[in-house]
Design brief:
Elements (H helix, E strand, L loop, with lengths): L1 H9 L2 H10 L4 H60 L4 H4 L2 E6 L5 E5 L8 E4 L9 H6 L10 H13 L4 E3 L10 H17 L2 E5 L20 H6 L4 E4 L5 E4 L4 H8 L3 H4 L9 H6 L3 H7 L10 H4 L2 H4 L12 H13 L23 E2 L15 E3 L15 E3 L25 E2 L2 E10 L5 E4 L2 E3 L8 E9 L2 E5 L5 E2 L7 E7 L8 H8 L7 E5 L4 E7 L4 E2 L4 E2 L7 E10 L3 E11 L3 E8 L4 H8 L2 H11 L1 E2 L6 E4 L2 E7 L4 E7 L6
Parallel strand pairs: 3-4, 3-5, 5-6, 16-18, 19-29
Antiparallel strand pairs: 1-2, 1-4, 6-7, 8-16, 9-14, 10-12, 11-12, 12-13, 12-18, 13-15, 15-16, 15-17, 19-22, 20-23, 21-22, 23-24, 24-25, 25-26, 27-28, 28-29
Keywords: Coiled coil
Organism: Colletotrichum higginsianum (strain IMI 349063) (Crucifer anthracnose fungus)
InterPro entries: HET
C-alpha cells in the first residue's frame, strides 16, 4: 500500500518541480532534484516488481506443498487400495475418498483413507424439493441461502459445532453425483460412513407438535433403513430442530414400528460386537423383512440401499430395474449359505401379474416378498452346516456329477476354489429334498417360525423341469416339513428367474415334461438303485429318467442285488425312432453291456443293448438274468420298467 502511494506522488513530479522553482532554487538544482526523483521512481518500480515475483514464487511454493501433501495422501490411499487388492478384499470395504463439510467454514473438504477425521456427524433425512447439491456448494456459495435444503445443512453444522464436532457428512451435497464412479463408490461406502460417525442427526421434517414420531414418512424410505441401523448413536429432531430423543430412548417405539430387534437398535449403547457382526447373526430373510414396506424413488435403489445391511458390494447400473435386486441376491449367496434367502412368498403384483404365478425362479423379485419373514429363526447356526447329511444342507458350489456311475472317478462335492457359481442353467447346488404330492419335491430352508411352538422346519416346493433344472412351484406358499421324512441328496439346478410372460408357456410345457420318461419300479427289497447316468436327467425321488420329449435317449441305472450274494450291475435303456424302447441288464464281470456303461462308451452300450436286450417294437418286454427279472410296460406318458428278484440261474 505504501509503495503504491509513493508511486502516485512520483507521478506528480512535473507539478512538484514547478513548486520547487517557485521556492527560488537554481535551475541546475531543480534538474538535480528531478533526476533523483526519477531514479527513485525507477528503483521503486524495480522493488515492486521484485516483490511481485517473490510473492508469485511463494504462492507457487505453497501450491506445490499443498499438491505434494495431496499427492502423499493419494499415494497412501492407493497403497491401501493395493494392499486391499493383494488381500483379495473389495477396495471400498477398507479405503475410500470422503467429502466432508467443514462446520465452521461451510466449505467441502476432501479426505483420503486414513486421513478421514475420527469424529464427524452424519445427517439422515428425507430428500425433498430444492435440495443442495455438491455443485451448489462448490460453485454457487452466494445463492445457497435461497435453496430450501440449505437450512437443514446449516442447522446440522451449528449443532455439530455446539457438541464439539468439526465436520459433517450430508448425502445431498457431499457426493458429486455427476460422477458415476464417485456415486458408486459412495453408495458402497455409505453404510461404513454411518457406522463410523460419532453421531447421526435424524431430521424429521414432517414431525411437529401434532404429528406422532412413529408416523413420520422417514420410516417408509428405503435409504433410511441403513441410516437407522448403522450409527452408534442417533439423535432425533423435529421440524423445528427441537430434540425428540435419542435412539436408545425411543428404542421401544422404533422396534414396534420397524420390527428391527432391540439388540440391533441398541448396539452402540454399550461395548460389544460390531454392527456387522450383529447383522450377520440375523437371518437373511429377517433382514429383508425390514425393507419389505419401504419404498425408493428409483427401482434399483431398493437393492442398492441394502448393500450395507448384507455386507456386500456391487457396481451401480441404473436402468437395470429389477435386475439390481437379482444381483443383490447373487452377491448375498456368495457371502452366506443361509437358506432363508429363499423364504419369500409371492403374491399378486409382486412379479407384475394379476395372480400369483404357478412357477417362479428361486430368487425373489423385491424385498416386499419377505414381508412375512420377520419371525424366522435359524434351526442352527449356518456356519456349522455339514457338507451332507442334514435335510437342510445346501452347498453353493461347482460340483461333479453325483452318482455318475460306480467305477468312474468321483469328484468332490464341494470345490472350494470355485464356489458360489451361478451357471446359465441356474444356481447349481447339492440339496436334500423330500417327495411331495403331484410329483413336487420339498426343499428345507433350515429355519422355523419363532411364533410356532412346533419349531417345524419350513420349506418350499420344487418341480423338475427336466435336465436337472428345477423351478419353484407354488411360490405363494411355504410348507412345514414333517420330521424324519426320507430325503435324497442330489445335484440340481435352481432356475434363478422366470419372466412373467414365460410362466404360462412353462406351465403348459411342464404338463408334458415327463413325455417319453422311463420310470423304474423296484419290486424287491433286495434290489437297490445306487446311481444313474446321465445324472442330469435322473430324478432320484421318482426313480425316473426325464427325457423331456427328446427323440432319442440312452442311459443306465447302477444297481446292487443283496440276496444270497452281493452283485453289482446295470440296466441300460433307451429309445430312438428306429427301435423304439429297448432295455438290457448286465452284471459286473459277466456282461459286455456293464463294461460299456462303466467305461462311458454310450454308443457301444446302445449297440449291445439293441442287439442283446429286449426291444419294444418286437414285443419283447421281459428279460431275465441271474437273480434279476426286468420287464417293461406302457406308462402314463412314457415307459415303466419293473425290477424284481429272480431265481433264474441261467441267461
Amino acid at each position: 500500500m505504501q509503495s503504491a502511494a509513493k508511486r502516485r506522488k512520483l507521478l506528480e513530479i512535473p507539478e512538484r518541480m514547478e513548486d520547487v522553482r517557485h521556492q527560488g532554487l537554481e535551475p541546475s538544482q531543480v534538474g538535480l532534484v528531478a533526476t533523483k526523483l526519477e531514479r527513485a521512481e525507477q528503483r521503486l518500480q524495480e522493488i515492486e516488481i521484485d516483490v511481485v515475483v517473490k510473492r508469485e514464487e511463494l504462492e507457487k511454493t505453497v501450491i506445490e506443498a499443498r499438491h505434494q501433501k495431496d499427492q502423499h495422501r493419494k499415494a497412501e490411499y492407493f497403497e491401501e487400495m493395493q494392499r486391499a487388492t493383494d488381500k483379495k478384499t473389495l477396495v471400498f470395504k477398507t479405503t475410500t475418498v470422503m467429502k466432508l463439510l467443514n462446520c465452521s467454514t461451510l466449505k467441502i473438504e476432501e479426505f483420503f483413507g486414513s486421513s478421514i477425521p475420527k469424529s464427524y456427524v452424519v445427517l439422515s433425512h428425507r430428500w425433498e424439493a430444492d435440495e443442495v447439491t455438491y455443485q451448489d456448494v462448490i460453485n454457487n456459495a452466494k445463492t445457497l441461502a435461497q435453496k430450501r435444503g440449505w437450512a437443514k445443512i446449516r442447522e446440522t453444522c451449528r449443532i455439530a459445532l455446539e457438541r464439539g464436532h468439526n465436520y459433517a457428512w450430508v448425502d445431498t451435497c457431499c457426493i458429486d453425483k455427476t460422477s458415476s464412479a464417485e456415486l458408486s463408490e459412495a453408495i458402497n461406502s455409505m453404510f461404513k460412513w454411518y457406522a463410523n460417525a460419532a453421531v447421526c442427526y435424524v431430521f424429521l421434517s414432517d414431525v411437529g407438535t401434532n404429528q406422532a414420531f412413529a408416523e413420520s414418512l422417514w420410516f417408509t424410505r428405503g435409504w433410511t433403513l441403513q441410516e437407522l441401523v448403522a450409527p452408534r448413536e442417533l439423535l432425533f429432531f423435529d421440524r423445528d430442530w427441537d430434540l425428540i430423543g435419542t435412539g436408545a430412548q425411543l428404542c421401544d417405539v422404533i422396534h414396534r414400528r420397524t420390527g428391527i430387534s432391540e439388540k440391533i437398535l441398541l448396539h452402540g449403547s454399550a461395548p460389544g460386537p460390531s454392527i456387522g457382526a450383529l447383522l450377520s447373526s440375523i437371518p437373511v430373510a429377517v433382514r429383508m423383512s425390514w425393507a419389505a414396506t419401504r419404498v425408493t424413488t428409483r427401482e434399483e435403489d431398493s437393492a442398492y440401499s441394502l448393500l450395507g445391511i448384507f455386507g456386500v458390494n456391487m457396481p451401480m447400473l441404473y436402468g437395470e430395474g429389477r435386475g439390481a435386486f437379482m444381483r443383490l441376491q447373487e452377491e448375498i449367496i456368495k457371502e452366506t449359505n443361509d437358506l432363508t434367502l429363499f423364504a419369500w412368498i409371492a403374491s399378486p403384483g409382486d412379479s407384475g401379474a394379476q395372480d400369483p404365478p404357478e412357477y417362479r425362479g428361486i430368487l425373489a423379485s423385491s424385498p416386499r416378498e419377505f414381508r412375512n419373514a420377520g419371525k424366522l429363526e435359524l434351526s442352527r447356526d449356518a456356519k456349522y452346516n455339514p457338507e451332507v447329511g442334514t435335510p437342510w444342507f445346501m452347498s453353493f458350489s461347482v460340483m461333479g456329477e453325483v452318482g455318475s456311475g460306480v467305477g468312474q472317478k468321483k469328484k468332490k462335492l464341494t470345490d472350494s476354489s470355485e464356489q458360489y457359481t451361478m451357471t446359465n442353467k441356474g444356481l447349481r447346488i447339492v440339496a436334500e429334498t423330500t417327495m411331495a404330492e403331484n410329483n413336487t419335491q420339498l426343499l428345507g430352508l433350515g429355519s422355523h417360525d419363532s411364533s410356532d411352538g412346533s419349531r417345524k422346519e419350513i420349506g418350499l416346493y420344487l418341480e423338475d423341469q427336466g435336465g436337472g433344472v428345477f423351478l419353484r412351484a407354488k411360490p405363494h406358499k411355504l410348507v412345514k416339513l414333517a420330521k424324519n421324512a426320507p430325503q435324497t441328496s442330489h445335484t440340481i439346478y435352481l432356475k434363478k428367474h422366470i419372466e412373467t410372460e414365460a410362466v404360462t408357456q412353462i406351465a403348459t410345457r411342464m404338463k408334458f415334461v415327463s413325455h417319453g420318461a422311463i420310470r423304474f419300479h423296484v419290486l424287491s427289497s433286495s434290489i437297490e438303485i445306487i446311481s444313474a447316468y446321465p445324472a442330469r436327467m435322473w430324478n432320484p425321488q421318482r426313480l425316473m429318467f426325464i427325457t423331456d420329449g427328446e427323440s432319442s435317449f440312452a442311459g443306465y441305472i447302477y444297481l446292487r442285488l443283496t440276496a444270497n450274494v452281493s452283485l453289482d450291475g446295470v440296466v441300460a435303456c433307451g429309445f430312438d425312432p428306429e427301435v423304439k424302447m429297448w432295455f438290457c441288464p448286465g452284471w459286473n464281470g459277466r456282461d459286455a453291456i456293464y463294461e460299456a456303461a462303466m467305461s462311458g462308451d454310450m454308443r457301444r452300450m446302445r449297440e449291445i443293448g439293441v442287439r442283446d436286450g429286449r426291444r419294444w417294437v418286437t414285443g419283447e418286454r421281459s428279460k431275465k438274468i441271474i437273480g434279476l427279472e426286468v420287464s417293461a410296460g406302457p406308462g402314463q406318458q412314457g415307459f415303466d420298467v419293473s425290477l424284481r428278484q429272480s431265481n433264474c440261474t441261467v441267461m
